[in-house]
Amino acid sequence: MLKPVNVGICGLGTVASGTINILLRNHSIINARAGCEIRIVQVGARRNNPKCDTSSLNVTRDIFAVADNPDVDILIELIGGTTVAKDLVLKAIANGKHVITANKALIAHHGNEIFAAAKAKGVTVAFEAAVAGGIPIIKAIREGLAANQIEWLAGIINGTGNFILTEMRDKGRAFEDVLKEAQALGYAEADPTFDVEGIDAAHKLVILASLAFGIPLEIKKVFTEGITRITPEDVTYAEELGYRIKHLGIARRTEAGIELRVHPTLIPEKRLIANVDGVMNAVVVKGDAVGPTLYYGAGAGAEPTGSSVVGDIVDVARTLTAEPEHRVPYLGFDADFVAEQTILPIDEVETAYYLRMSADDKPGVLSKVATILSDYGISIEALIQKEAREGESVVPLILLTNRVLEKRLATAIDRIEALDSISAPVMRIRMESLK
Amino acid sequence: MLKPVNVGICGLGTVASGTINILLRNHSIINARAGCEIRIVQVGARRNNPKCDTSSLNVTRDIFAVADNPDVDILIELIGGTTVAKDLVLKAIANGKHVITANKALIAHHGNEIFAAAKAKGVTVAFEAAVAGGIPIIKAIREGLAANQIEWLAGIINGTGNFILTEMRDKGRAFEDVLKEAQALGYAEADPTFDVEGIDAAHKLVILASLAFGIPLEIKKVFTEGITRITPEDVTYAEELGYRIKHLGIARRTEAGIELRVHPTLIPEKRLIANVDGVMNAVVVKGDAVGPTLYYGAGAGAEPTGSSVVGDIVDVARTLTAEPEHRVPYLGFDADFVAEQTILPIDEVETAYYLRMSADDKPGVLSKVATILSDYGISIEALIQKEAREGESVVPLILLTNRVLEKRLATAIDRIEALDSISAPVMRIRMESLK
Q1: B319 touching A, CB under 8 A?
Q2: Chain A partners of B126 at a C-beta cutoff of 8 Å?
Q3: Residue A63 needs a FRET pair 20 to 30 A away by CA distance; which of A99, A112, A267, A361 works?
Q4: Does B33 sit within 8 Å of A288, measured CB to CB?
């Protein structure tokens, strides 16, 4: 048996309460898995949480006291944010403590600096809980698929956005309407920007991409597009064409460079990930040896996220007294191997597209649109054109294109939008086959 | 950097060719992940494999020479079977070598003995490739979900059986017909018993159950029922009722004991795993903290299975020179914790049932059946009764029951089968909600 391992937990919000409750409830099985006793020696939090009984624990109101506590082997950062959390983590590392965090924004923005500091001190930084809640996706990519050149990955990695899109599809509801319900249910924050604009997903995507491709974390290079423009009509037309709309984070290695993008995406309804509904998360990872694999589970919540934090505790505890080279590297690669690669701007990305436009209900319009697309080498793979409704003089025209460079498509759309017979901007949604 | 790690590979069949091809093709990324150079120092195989270029490798026809080779740090057993493979693995362990195997039958039948020998010598035995091919399911349960009391797991862990059931559903074909095609395609062996009778799935299930519950491997206690009796009609009726039939391996912890069973199972079509088709594998694992999670990917094939073997190489290489207590235990638990628990006989298992019977087309038959079920406290949750076809005097009667002890249901069925108005045996298929 290894000697007991002492953890100090900073924060007492949702994830901390889940983590503490799991550690207290499942201590015997956790100790049997870790090969040592895991002890919570201190909790640092400004206020108590009624969902977590800390009466048996040593609670301080000074979170930095946990980073300075000589009894603490592992500091668990669950306070969130990127300012105090960063200071706290760097202080813990400076004091020679291992760090576990659930903080995706912290890792996405400051991971490179934090990992460098940790490497200099010979300590671990673990962050399974930062991506996709309870799904052990970081371990899967970093260790389980270690044999593979990862070709691409695509994930539903924001539960709020997926809840909204699922409700829009199941009930034909509008975005704003479902968002209000999600806020009432507590799925979405009062300021939903992080979720619906894809910022939260971008944080998670850069982490997954670094693990997949051995690149530093580059949050500023992610292309991000939210789901606020998606209409119930788009959801319905997609379905008619055999597709579902999901808000995906996608990272792909191409000969020209790496794509890093978060946007609404049409995917074939037959794909397993197209059937991941509500607040659940899932990530598809395609390796050159293994082919496509998928990982599914709860992407948020106290105990699912706590499950990942405690999984990290067991991992870190096991090699706490081993030499650093016996531990899994932060990003899964020997630090010397991690190097910048070209990240493609969105203009240089090639995908297929769903296009929806309002066309005058008269002969020749489709022909004009088709001619412009053809001028740019874009072919129409599928088409829906409905009859005009009683009393209306415009009809919706929906097209699926072949794969084309984004900048080429953008130029074609500029010309289509300049047509007299096309009104309103052309709606465009990227498509992926995920094969 | 750690010093180079030398592997010796025994066998040169499908999985070995995949493993060698991955190691040769992806060596730089694999070395970067392992933190050391991985070298194939010897291959032991009775004959060559045209799918694998071994011209740069040191090949011997004597596989035991690999176990005796002092340069070999890790022996990779890919010869299959449970006799020579066992001798080979035990010899390698006796010589102080770490062992990696893809051999589910070997681990299921002799794992307890092999682990005990390995523990005594302070070496690792890794077997990710033994279950569900390229899916890192062993790592997920053993490490990723270490925080959890696992409540149950259920998997499609035999690709051949899933291919057959998928074809039966998609095309209304009969079992025997699809089996012949699967054999022609090379998915099924000439003797398909291992696949279609659930023996292969039972091997994998006991491994997963040991990892989930901390119990020794007990292959003899698995209840196994094949898919040979499933008819296209059953598939169709299940679909009418909103279910799909999958051949599942199920392990569940109940207050009375642990269930270990492989059998055809009706599951709600809305579940993600119900939509896993063809030769693909998937495992749902329900933890008390994380809730339901699912892992999906290729369950067989050269490179998918090789992906898991190489993942194990990276893991083993990383802690090769560390003290044994820093390594993940064979079954994920400290050996002192692994203890027998009661395994329930199938009679003591409680599930819901799909029942199909042929009833005389005359009044009162349903009432008699319902009365018998009611006598045993069994309620009818759904029912399909079709009109008799022209010229036929019997009608199919399909019932879904509530959850009931198997032995209680069996007694009720005995009485139903004794009715004059019911002909032929009553078909029964277990059901699971997998919630």
Answers
A1: yes
A2: none
A3: A112
A4: no
Map out the domains of chain B as residue ranges: 5-134+302-326, 137-298, 350-431
Tokens of residue A388, six digits: 């005009």
DSSP secondary structure code for residue B285 in this structure: E
Does the CB of B294 have a partner CB in chain A at under 8 Å?
yes
Contact B296/A at CB under 8 A: yes
Interchain pair A289, B26: CB under 8 A: yes
DSSP codes joined into one string, A39-84 = EEEEEE-SS--TTS--TTS-EES-HHHHHH-TT-SEEEE-S-SSSH
Residues of A annotated as catalytic are 204
| pLDDT tier, A304 (very low <50, low <70, confident <90, very high otherwise) | very high
Mean pLDDT of chain B: 96
Please compute the mean of the pLDDT values over residues A73-89 and round it to a whole number. 98
Q: What is the pLDDT of residue A424?
A: 74
Q: Which residues of B touch A213 (CB under 8 A)?
A: none
Q: Which of A359, A351, A421, A406 lies closest to A386 in space, CA to CA?
A: A359
B119 close to A (CB below 8 A): no
Distance in angstroms (rounded) separating the CA atoms of residues A271 and A342: 30
Amino acid at position A82, single letter: T
Residue for token pair 């953890």: A7
Classify domain B137-298 by CATH number. Answer: 3.30.360.10
> Which residues does chain A have within 8 Å of residue B143's beta carbon, measured at their own beta carbons?
136, 139, 311, 314-315
Q: Which of B136, B304, B323 sits opposite A289 (nearest CB)?
A: B304
> Is residue B424's pLDDT more than 80?
no
Interface touch B35/A329, C-beta < 8 Å: yes
Q: Rounded to whole angstroms, how far apart are CA atoms A148 and A212? A: 9
Give yes or no for B292 touching A (CB within 8 A): yes
Determine how many CB atoms are found less than 10 A away from the CB of residue A56. 7
Q: Assign B133 to helix, strand or coil.
A: coil
Distance between B410 CA and the closest CA of chain A, angstroms: 36
The residue assigned the tokens 């390995």 is B118
Q: Which CATH superfamily is domain A5-133+302-335 in?
A: NAD(P)-binding Rossmann-like Domain (3.40.50.720)
Q: How far is A319 from chain B (nearest CA, A)?
A: 5
The answer to whether B140 and B269 are in contact (CB under 8 A) is: no
Task: Provide mean pLDDT across the span B23-51.
Answer: 96
Which of B29, B128, B170 should be substituted to probe chain A, the one whose Cβ sees the most A Cβ atoms within 10 Å?
A: B29
Query: Does CATH place domain B350-431 in 3.30.70.260?
Result: yes
CATH code, residues A346-431: 3.30.70.260
Q: Which residue has the tokens 């300075």?
A: A68
Q: In the prediction, which pLDDT does A64 show?
A: 98
B204 assigned to active site: yes
pLDDT at A163 > cutoff 80: yes
A41-51 pLDDT per residue, tens:
999 999 999 99
> Any chain A CB within 8 A of the CB of B144?
yes
pTM over cut 0.90: yes
pLDDT digit string (tens) for A138-155? 999 999 999 999 999 999
Whole-number percent of chain A with pLDDT over 70: 100
